[in-house]
């Protein structure tokens, strides 16, 4: 399946499609195999985590990151995207808690299953989803394909990753949980502010 075009301009490549240049396989205990094949990063099912971490400089705010991801095996999250939010970090969880949960971990100590970003939706096996996250000075916005599903004010909020092994993804990483996954076309671009109004 051909990749969809990226909305807007200014996108820069983070994954060259042929190697893990600029990335590092995270040495999770029980991590699955990670390999690059035909333009994809394949994350084998881990026990529990498998993931990669970006090793080059990356902005702390005013950026978008986007890529395609799919679940290949298993039934839990096929995308745990950990990103910088100013001096803190958080994770966008896609397909967690049994397969259908989406949300941000963590806001004021509440993880993706417990805060106002929590949503449930169906994620089909072996189907590509375009995941896009926009982090600006006072907002986090996120989309699955063309649908905006995360739009949360961060001013005065405590932003963090969930305590545990996913902290190894800091500052920028992609991981799966007891699930095989694939990602492709990892790109980013600088932005100057939120994409739309808060509500």
Largest sheet features? 8 strands, antiparallel
Shape descriptor: globular
What is the helix content? under 10%
What is the CA-atom radius of gyration, in angstroms?
15 Å
At the third CATH level, what is the topology name of the domain at 55-175 and 186-190?
Jelly Rolls
Identify the CATH class of the domain at 55-175 and 186-190.
Answer: Mainly Beta
Q: End-to-end span in angstroms?
A: 34 Å
Strand content: over 45%
Helix tally equals 0
Question: What is the helix/strand order?
Answer: EEEEEEEEEEEEEEE
What CATH architecture of the domain at 55-175 and 186-190 do you see?
A: Sandwich
Number of strands: 15
Helix/strand-derived category reads: mainly beta
Stretches where pLDDT is under 50 for at least 5 consecutive residues are none
> What's the overall average pLDDT, rounded?
96
What's this, in brief?
This protein is an all-beta fold. It is built from no helices and 15 strands.
Key attributes of the depicted protein:
Jelly Rolls; single chain; 199 residues; mainly beta; 15 strands; 7-stranded antiparallel sheet; 8-stranded antiparallel sheet
Walk me through what this model shows:
This protein has strands at residues 12-13, 23-25, 34-37, 40-43, 49-54, 63-74, 79-85, 88-96, 101-105, 119-120, 129-136, 139-144, 147-153, 173-177, 179-190. It is mostly beta strands and 199 residues long. The chain has a domain at 55-175 and 186-190: Jelly Rolls (Sandwich). Strands 1, 3, 4, 6, 11, 12, 13 and 15 form an eight-stranded antiparallel sheet that branches. A seven-stranded antiparallel sheet has the order 2-5-14-7-8-9-10, with no helix packed on it. The model has no long low-confidence stretch (mean pLDDT 96).
């Amino acid at each position: 399946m051909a990749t969809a075009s990226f909305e807007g301009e200014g996108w820069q490549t983070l994954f060259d499609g042929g190697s893990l240049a600029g990335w590092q396989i995270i040495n999770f205990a029980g991590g699955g195999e990670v390999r690059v094949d035909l333009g994809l990063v394949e994350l084998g099912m881990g026990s529990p985590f498998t993931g990669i971490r970006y090793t080059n400089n990356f902005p702390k705010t005013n950026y978008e990151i986007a890529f395609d991801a799919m679940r290949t095996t298993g039934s839990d999250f096929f995308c745990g995207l950990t990103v910088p939010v100013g001096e803190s970090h958080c994770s966008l969880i896609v397909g967690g808690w049994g397969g259908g949960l989406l949300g941000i971990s963590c806001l004021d100590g509440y993880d993706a299953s417990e805060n106002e970003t929590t949503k449930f939706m169906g994620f089909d096996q072996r189907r590509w989803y375009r995941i896009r996250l926009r982090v600006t000075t006072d907002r986090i916005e996120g989309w699955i394909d063309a649908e905006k599903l995360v739009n949360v004010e961060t001013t005065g909020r405590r932003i963090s990753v969930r305590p545990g092994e996913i902290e190894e993804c800091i500052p920028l990483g992609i991981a799966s949980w007891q699930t095989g996954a694939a990602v492709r076309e990892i790109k980013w671009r600088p932005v100057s502010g939120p994409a739309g109004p808060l509500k």
